[in-house]
Write a structure and sequence with these properties.
Pfam families: Rod-binding (PF10135). The protein has 156 residues and is mainly alpha-helical. Helix content is 54%, strand content 3%. A two-stranded antiparallel ribbon has the order 1-2. The chain is extended.
Length: 156
Amino acid sequence: MSITPPSDIVMDVARAADPARYQEAASKLSQPGDPAAFASAADEAAREAGLSTHLPLDAHGTLTGLKNDTALKGSADPYRKFEGQVIQQFVEAMLPKAETVFGKGNAGGIWKSMLAEQLGQQIAKTGGIGIARMLDKSHPITPTPSTSATGVASKV
């Protein structure tokens, strides 16, 4: 069985675009270019759209928090852990089912689950997909004073 789309989606979008911008884009694409020029053009287009084209890495190449991410306070840590668990489910569904990658039987399932868990937590830690921010915005966690052994309340 095959499908026959009603039209060429790419051409429909090109026809709906502003003719001047379409011609400009077509001329840029038809010219052989320098990869650095393409990268700078992509950076410029991303900045215009309010996006970033680089991953925030520290000196060791480890992902760090995103600059435009509203920094979640330490009190939002349960929300971040929850977001990590949700992302873990997404990642685990995307990982290959091949036994040659993770091993056979129960051990392979455990390795796959552990990998998905770590990936999910790291993604959530570096900005995630916004679940923790939305939960923190709608239900902020306020630190409660704890009582010490002397019965005096102190802030944690």
